[in-house]
Amino acid sequence: MIGRCVNSCGWCLAGILAAGLCPIGAPRAEAGFGAMDWQRIWDMARVGRPVVSPDGRWVVFTVTAYRRGAAHPMVDLWLVATDGDDGPRQLTRNPGPDFDPSWAPDSRSIVYASIRDAEPSQLYLLSLRGGEPTPVTRFPSNTAKPRFAPAGDAIIFEAPTFADVNDNVDVLTIRMSRLQAQERFARGSESRFVRRTDGGAPSGSVIHLFRLDLESGAVKDLMPNFDRSTGVVPFDWSLAPNGLSLAFTANSSPPPYVSLNPDVFLLALESGRITNLTADNPGADFGPVFTPASDAIVYGRKRRPDSLAEFTELIRLSLRHQRHEPITDQNALSPEQWQVSGKGRSVYFHAQHRGRRLIYRVPIGGGKSRPMIEDNSAGYLDLGPKDRIFYLTEGFFDPPSIYMADHNGRH
Fold first, then answer.
1. Is residue 298 within a helix (H) or strand (E), and if so which, with residue range?
2. I want to staple 262 with a disulfide (CB 3.0 to 4.6 A). Which of 16, 66, 233, 365 is the partner?
3. For residue 80, which of 100, 54, 51 has the smallest C-alpha distance?
4. pLDDT, tens digit, 9 for 90 and up, residues 276-303
5. C-alpha span between 16 and 38 (Å, rounded)
6. Considering only CA atoms, which of 109, 154, 152, 158 is closest in space to residue 134?
7. Pairwise CA distance, residues 173 & 140, whole Å
8. Helix (H, G, I), strand (E, B) or coil at 105
């Protein structure tokens, strides 16, 4: 069941009440826990990442319920008001997963990805004024991570394609069908990634970013002929607030990928030019996030190649002066899921500390990282207007719940 509560850390906007351990839509159990077993654990619904609307009035989040014997979990979108006046309400009821929600600039609609009828995931548009979700793509490969352009007239999304196919939908459909059939047969290869399972992308494909024009429905490949492997490392990207450029992560090492070297690339949307911003570092560079003025990027860096155990260091890159300046001490914390504050003065992130994941704030020019949220174990950070902090937290005795706090970690 979904509920609200208050504690010393902030408002709990949405959480699964432990008593009864009920999935969404199931009748609540009688008082008392009873014996905890694997069936009760799997029957618990799970609250997912919070995404706050641009006006700060709403938070959309996923709720996952596992069904025994089903091919996919049931993942639905839910909505809750940040002022606490309205309880959470369910937005979607698709038998398959609905995921990756993102807000329109006017906070009146949501775009998200959805899997239906064993087809590749497609994008749907849902108005908060009511009505059924509207499909906006019919793409032959899995679409994901949609984001509205700042003007609200287009949606940027990612999907697998091929460097010689790009946005040719007819050719892409044929190529995808052939390669998916070939995945059933054994074959020899010297590549480190002879077969991939990243969201159903067949081997040999690369993830590109596409632009969907909402008025005409036309889809344009923003990375035509780009052949760097974007699927063998986490493909993360950020759209500049001024709408003029994109930053993304792609592997720059050649096949057969004996060593991986993720780099941060900048895509100028007007000219289509793609520039490697971190070619000098042999280690991993990833997670680019633009500052509000679109004049700098904050990203994560590891200095040694293929060093998974090395702590992540946050770097600020001035796009005008091409200066890479450290923000955090590489030996103190290993930041994850960082976001830049609304005025561009601070960076919020979460990092592990003594077995828990805390939320920290650090000046964007560098300095001491100060813990903001120290309750339980926090994750999936999102920032709203006035740098209000929205996050997911859980503990040994508390299932995942969404909380809200002010920019100093207080209610």
1. strand 296-301
2. 233
3. 51
4. 999 999 999 999 999 999 999 999 999 9
5. 17
6. 109
7. 5
8. coil
